Amino acid sequence: MKHKQIYNLLIIIVALIVGCYIGISLYLILHQSSEIELLKRERHGYILKVKELEDMIISAKRNEELQKISPYEKKDKDEFPTIPLKYKELENATLDFLNTQQYIPDFLPVADFILTKPYMPSRNHYGIDLAGKVGDPIFAAASGVVEEIKMNDEVYGKTILIDHLNGYKTFYGHNSEILAQKGFFVKKGEDLAELGNTGISSAPHLHFEILYKGEHIDPETLIKK
Question: Could you say which of 2.60.40.1120, 1.10.275.10, 2.70.70.10, 3.40.630.40 is the CATH number of the domain covering 101-221?
Fold first, then answer.
């Protein structure tokens, strides 16, 4: 009976030792696995951060390269899809706003002229008349978008209205030919039309108006002679 009790006690002790060993082993295995998994995650996160940084550097370099390329050039059809010219130039116009002077209508629209009628709002004459020869070039007083073209206005014949995208608009009347196109962007000093005698006109001249926020102003106060 006594030997049996000792035998049972030994079995219990061995079982406890084995159980402790197994428990410690499992704990170490699980802890090590957890550390390995944590290291894997940290390493994966580090790789992602490095990849993200590399992508940012590549993107920054690419943007810098693209800024150096003229918007009118095409190196790769996939990179520069074909779009209507007017939209491309309107996008250019937005960027050009840094140079606001290009959008102030102070450029003389006719090179050789005689001022035959000044700005006289009291007599319903809201522009100036610049006499010249039929066919003389008429220039854009400032950069902007051609808002409207009329080919047979009752008073001013063939006309052009330009929106300079900053509150200013300019009007060109009595033209013999229209060279600009509606919806297209034009640059300051660019040919718009040819001087003429269309509409109600006694002699070839350009009727030129400047509006600011819908109100007429005297062109002579703005244009550079």
Answer: 2.70.70.10
